[in-house]
C-alpha cells in the first residue's frame, strides 16, 4: 500500500536529518576533546615529602559530595543549588586569603604578597610521569586549615541556613570531601599546559588568585552577539519577504465543536484521568517544596520561627523540587500522548487501558520510591553500598538513585510502545516525515536521551560526568522536550481546527532545523568553566546565541496567527478557551524565559560572573515552568474537558489557575529573581564571586527584603494556580464523562464537527 505523501516538500525532512547529523557529529568531536583534555586527577598531592591526599581521596570525596546531596545545597564549578556556597570558589578564596597573610609576613624581594600568591596558584606543578602534584608548605597549611573549617561546618550541632545539623561527622569523610574541593579549586587556578589560563578558563573570578576573564571569553561573547544580530536580521528579512509558513492561506471559517455530551471516550482515555490526578498532585507538592526552599533564603534560621530544616533540610527539599518538576510535567505529557493517539488514528486497539494502568503504576513506584530513597540516602540510612542505587545519585537533575533511573527509562519506553500500538496502522499509511511519525520520533527521543544520563558514573572524573549530565539537562530538557512540545501544540491546533496540517508540519520542521542548528552544539554553553577545553566555550557561545532566533521567528509567526484569526469569534474556543490561553502563554514565556533571559546568561562574559546566581534561577524558572509547566497545565485542561461530565466543568477554576500561575511566575521573576540576580552580578564583579554566593550576602538587610518580597507571588502561584488544577482533576474522578466507546470502535479524527 502506497504511503500518503508529505503535504510539504520532502526537503524539509531531509534538511532536518542533515542538521541533526551535523550537530551530533560536532558533539561527538567535543566529547572526544573532553576525555582527552580533562584536568588530571593526580595520584597524590604532596608537600615537603608528605602526602596530603590521593586520587582515591578525590574520587571518593566526589562520591561523598553526591551521597549527601551537597550539589542540591551548594555548587561546584557554579553548577548546583544556590543557598550554600560554591565550594570551588570558597576553597580558592580561602586558600588565597591564607597565603596572602602568610606571605605578607615573609616578603619576597620584587614581589608583593598578592603577586606571589597569584603566581604560585597559576603555576601547574603536576608531574605526569610521576602522577604527582607538588604544593608548597604554606599551601599545605592552608589546605589543613580549610579541612578543619569544613569539619566545623558539616559537623555543627545546629542547623545553618537550611543545612542539616551534624550533616557529615566522619573525619575521614571530611578529609576526602575537602580533597575533592581542593582538586576543583586547583583546576580553577592552575594553568592548562601550554596556555596562560586555567583548566576552567580562569573561573571563578578571584582577584587574590589572579583569576580574571580571558580574551577568549570576551572574543567569543562578541562573536555570539554578532551571530545573534546577523541571524535576527536574516530572519526579519525573510519573514517580511516571504510567507514562511502559509498563514495567509489559513482557513478563516469558524469551527463548530462537537458538544461534550456527544463526545465518547475510550477505555485508555478514561484511565488517563488517574494520570492527570497524580500529575496535578505532584505539581502541588512541587510548588510547596519550592515555596519552602525559597523561604529558607528569606529566613535562613527557620520557617516563621519553626526550624523545619531538622526534618526537611534544604538539600532534600530542593532535590524533591527539581524531581517533582520533571515528574509532574512528564506525567502530563505521557497522559496527553496516550489521550490524543485515538484521535489521530481513529481507533484504539484493545489492551491499551491495561498497559496505561501498568504504566501509571510504574510511574507511581518510581516517583515515590525515588523520593523516599533520596531522603534515606542523604540521611545515610542506606549505608555505603546502596546510596547510589536506591538513594541520592547526587547530580542535579539526575538525583534519583540509579535503579529508579533505569526503571524510569523502562517506563518511558513502555509509553512509547503504547503510542506505537495506537499509531501502528496510521504509521503504515503515512510518509516517514509526516505528523504521526514526527510525534513518534519526538516521543522516542524522550527516553532515548534521558538514558544518556546512565553515562554519568561515580567512578569517572567530575568533568566527564558533568559533560554527560548536561546532555540530559540541555538536550533532553531544552531540546527534545522542546521538540515534543512543538509537535504536541501543532497537533492540538490541527485537531482543534486552528491551523491547517500543512502549516503545522512546516512549523515543526522549522523548529527542528533551527533548534538543531543552535541547540545541539549550544549544549556547551553550560560547560564554559567546567574543565572543558576552550573549543567548547567558542562553539557553545556562538551556537547557543542562535537558539534565540527560532524563538523570535515563532513569536513573529504567532503574531501572524493572531492576525489570521481576527475575523473569528473567541467563541470558537469556547470548549478549550483556557487550554488555548495556556498554549499562548507558552509562546510568551518561551521567548522571554528561554530567549531573553537565556541569552543574557549564555554570553561567556556574563556567565563568567553570574553562573550559579539568581539570574540562572530566573532563566530556569521562566523557561522550565513558563514553557513546559504552562504546556503541561494546558494539556491537562484539554484532556480534562472531555473526561469530566459537562455540567461539572468549571471554566472559572481554569481561568483562576491560568492567571494565578502566570502572574505568580511573573512576580517571582521580576520582583525577586531578576533584580536579585542583577545585585549578585554587581557584587560578583565588584567584591568577588565567592561573596555573591555566600550566606553573608543573602543576609544583607535589603537583599533579604527582596527574598521576602517573593512571598505574595509564591502564595498566589500555589493557592490560585496549582490547587484549582488538582480540584478539576478531582471533579473528573468524581463526575466522569458518562459517554464511553469500546476499543476497536471508530472515532472521529477531529474534535470539531463540520465547517459552517
State the helicity in percent bands.
Answer: 55-70%
General shape: globular
Relative strand content: under 5%
Structural class: mainly alpha
- Poorly predicted segments: 561-571
What is the CA-CA span between the terminal residues? 34 Å
Mean pLDDT: 89
Number of helices: 25
What does this structure look like?
Mean pLDDT is 89; it is low at 561-571. This protein starts with 10 loop residues before the first helix and ends with a strand. The radius of gyration is 27 Å and the shape is globular. The strands form four sheets. A four-stranded mixed β-sheet has the order 2-1-6-5. 66% of the residues lie in helices and 4% in strands. The protein has 756 residues and is mainly alpha-helical.
Briefly summarize what is shown.
This protein is mostly helical. It contains 25 helices and 10 strands.
Tell me the layout of helices and strands:
Elements lengths: L10 H27 L6 E4 L2 E5 H13 L7 E2 L2 E2 L6 H18 L8 H10 L3 E2 L4 E3 L2 H18 L16 H19 L25 H27 L13 E3 L9 H32 L15 H32 L6 H27 L4 H8 L1 E4 L2 E3 L1 H28 L5 H16 L11 H34 L5 H20 L13 H12 L2 H17 L12 H26 L1 H7 L3 H30 L7 H36 L2 H4 L2 H4 L2 H8 L2 H24 L17 E4 L1
Helix pairs in contact: 1-15, 2-6, 3-4, 3-5, 3-6, 5-6, 7-16, 7-17, 8-9, 8-10, 8-20, 8-24, 8-25, 9-10, 9-12, 9-20, 10-11, 10-12, 12-13, 13-14, 14-15, 15-16, 15-17, 17-18, 18-20, 18-21, 20-21, 20-25, 21-24, 21-25
Amino acid at each position: 500500500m502506497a504511503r500518503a505523501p508529505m503535504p510539504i516538500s520532502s526537503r524539509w525532512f531531509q534538511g532536518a536529518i542533515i542538521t541533526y547529523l551535523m550537530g551530533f557529529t560536532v558533539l561527538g568531536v567535543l566529547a572526544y576533546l573532553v576525555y582527552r583534555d580533562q584536568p588530571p586527577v593526580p595520584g597524590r598531592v604532596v608537600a615537603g615529602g608528605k602526602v596530603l591526599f590521593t586520587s582515591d581521596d578525590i574520587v571518593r570525596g566526589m562520591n561523598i559530595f553526591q551521597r549527601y546531596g551537597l550539589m542540591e545545597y551548594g555548587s561546584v564549578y557554579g553548577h548546583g543549588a544556590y543557598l550554600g556556597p560554591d565550594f570551588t570558589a570558597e576553597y580558592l578564596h580561602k586558600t588565597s586569603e591564607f597565603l596572602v597573610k602568610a606571605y605578607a609576613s615573609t616578603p619576597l624581594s620584587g614581589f608583593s604578597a598578592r603577586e606571589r600568591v597569584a603566581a604560585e596558584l597559576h603555576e601547574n606543578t603536576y608531574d605526569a610521569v610521576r602522577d604527582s602534584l607538588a604544593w608548597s608548605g604554606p599551601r599545605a597549611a592552608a589546605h589543613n586549615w580549610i579541612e578543619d573549617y569544613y569539619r566545623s561546618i558539616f559537623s555543627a550541632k545546629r542547623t545553618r541556613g537550611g543545612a542539616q545539623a551534624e550533616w557529615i561527622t566522619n573525619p575521614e569523610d571530611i578529609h576526602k570531601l575537602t580533597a575533592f574541593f581542593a582538586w576543583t579549586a586547583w583546576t580553577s587556578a592552575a594553568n592548562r599546559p601550554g596556555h596562560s589560563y586555567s583548566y576552567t578558563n580562569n573561573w571563578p573570578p578571584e582577584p587574590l588568585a589572579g583569576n580574571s576573564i580571558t580574551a577568549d571569553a570576551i572574543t567569543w561573547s562578541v562573536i555570539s552577539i554578532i551571530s545573534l544580530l546577523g541571524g535576527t536580521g536574516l530572519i526579519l528579512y525573510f519573514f517580511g519577504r516571504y510567507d514562511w509558513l502559509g498563514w495567509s492561506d489559513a482557513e478563516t471559517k469558524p469551527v463548530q465543536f462537537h458538544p461534550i455530551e456527544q463526545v465518547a471516550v475510550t477505555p485508555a482515555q478514561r484511565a488517563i484521568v488517574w494520570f492527570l490526578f497524580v500529575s496535578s498532585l505532584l505539581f502541588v507538592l512541587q510548588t510547596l517544596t519550592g515555596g519552602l526552599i525559597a523561604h529558607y533564603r528569606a529566613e535562613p534560621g527557620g520557617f516563621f520561627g519553626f526550624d523545619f530544616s531538622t526534618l526537611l533540610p534544604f538539600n532534600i527539599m530542593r532535590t524533591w523540587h527539581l524531581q517533582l518538576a520533571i515528574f509532574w510535567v512528564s506525567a502530563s505529557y505521557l497522559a496527553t500522548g496516550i489521550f490524543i493517539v485515538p484521535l489521530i488514528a481513529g481507533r484504539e486497539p484493545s489492551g491499551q487501558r491495561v498497559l496505561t494502568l501498568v504504566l501509571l503504576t510504574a510511574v507511581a513506584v518510581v516517583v515515590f520510591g525515588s523520593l523516599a530513597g533520596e531522603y534515606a540516602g542523604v540521611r545515610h540510612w542506606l549505608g555505603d553500598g546502596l546510596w547510589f542505587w536506591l538513594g541520592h545519585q547526587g547530580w542535579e537533575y539526575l538525583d534519583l538513585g540509579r535503579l529508579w533511573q533505569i526503571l524510569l527509562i523502562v517506563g518511558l519506553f513502555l509509553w512509547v510502545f503504547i503510542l506505537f500500538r495506537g499509531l501502528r496502522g496510521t504509521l503504515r499509511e503515512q510518509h516517514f516525515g509526516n505528523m504521526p511519525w514526527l510525534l513518534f520520533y519526538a516521543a522516542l527521543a524522550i527516553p532515548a536521551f534521558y538514558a544518556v544520563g546512565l553515562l554519568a558514573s561515580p567512578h569517572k572524573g567530575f568533568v566527564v560526568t558533568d559533560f554527560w549530565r548536561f546532555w540530559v539537562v540541555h538536550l533532553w530538557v531544552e531540546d527534545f522536550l522542546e521538540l515534543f512540545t512543538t509537535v504536541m501544540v501543532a497537533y492540538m491546533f490541527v485537531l482543534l481546527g486552528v491551523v491547517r496540517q500543512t502549516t503545522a508540519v512546516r512549523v515543526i520542521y522549522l523548529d527542528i532545523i533551527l533548534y538543531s542548528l543552535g541547540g545541539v552544539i549550544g549544549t556547551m554553553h553550560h560547560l564554559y568553566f567546567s574543565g572543558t577545553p576552550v573549543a567548547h566555550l567558542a562553539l557553545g557561545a556562538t551556537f547557543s546565541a542562535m537558539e534565540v532566533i527560532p524563538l523570535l521567528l515563532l513569536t513573529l509567526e504567532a503574531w501572524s496567527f493572531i492576525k489570521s484569526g481576527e475575523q473569528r469569534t473567541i467563541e470558537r474556543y469556547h470548549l478549550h478557551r483556557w487550554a488555548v490561553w495556556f498554549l499562548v502563554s507558552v509562546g510568551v514565556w518561551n521567548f522571554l524565559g528561554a530567549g531573553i533571559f537565556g541569552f543574557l546568561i549564555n554570553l561567556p562574559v556574563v556567565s563568567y560572573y553570574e553562573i550559579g546566581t539568581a539570574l540562572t534561577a530566573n532563566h530556569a524558572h521562566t523557561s522550565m515552568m513558563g514553557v513546559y509547566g504552562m504546556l503541561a497545565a494546558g494539556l491537562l485542561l484539554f484532556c480534562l474537558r472531555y473526561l469530566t461530565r459537562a455540567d461539572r466543568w468549571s471554566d472559572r477554576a481554569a481561568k483562576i489557575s491560568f492567571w494565578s500561575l502566570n502572574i505568580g511566575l511573573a512576580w517571582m521573576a521580576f520582583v525577586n529573581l531578576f533584580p536579585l540576580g542583577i545585585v549578585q552580578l554587581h557584587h560578583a564583579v565588584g567584591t568577588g564571586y565567592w561573596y555573591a554566593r555566600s550566606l553573608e550576602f543573602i543576609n544583607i538587610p535589603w537583599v533579604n527584603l527582596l527574598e521576602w518580597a517573593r512571598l505574595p507571588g509564591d502564595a498566589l502561584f500555589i493557592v490560585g494556580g496549582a490547587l484549582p488544577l488538582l480540584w478539576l482533576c478531582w471533579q473528573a474522578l468524581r463526575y466522569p464523562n458518562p459517554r464511553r466507546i469500546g476499543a476497536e470502535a471508530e472515532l472521529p479524527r477531529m474534535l470539531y464537527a463540520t465547517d459552517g
